Amino acid sequence: MASVPAAATPVAAGPVVAxxxxxxxxxxxxxxxxxxxxxxxxxxxxxxxxLPDGTGGEDAAARAGAARDExxxxxxxxxxxxxxxxxxxxxxxFAETGGEHLRTELVQVAAVxxxxxxxxxxxxxxxxxxxxxxxxA
Length: 137
Fold this sequence. Notes:
By secondary structure, this protein is mainly α. It is built from four helices and no strands.
């Protein structure tokens, strides 16, 4: 699991509510509903897929370490981005060879992606975009 860089740790004036809504009531449920709809669309389009993981390998751990270093450096420089955090999580998942550790990393990837979407939706003037794939004709 990637550590949460200091710059990414929220500082609140009052009590912190850990409901996953990131300051927008209902936002977690909305984003997760969009993710669920996309999963249904994927099954409609591709069916159930049983594929190899394709993770692990000689250089995967080194790439994950490099992403962690880049994220830490960006944080220290005050230049941390969502790309840094998500790339680190994805590369950590790619370094795993399967089983419980891979699953844990993939949950972290999904959580960061959801949090990034919530951040997009919180931006001034942002209208949450609903992305659903049309069913094949």
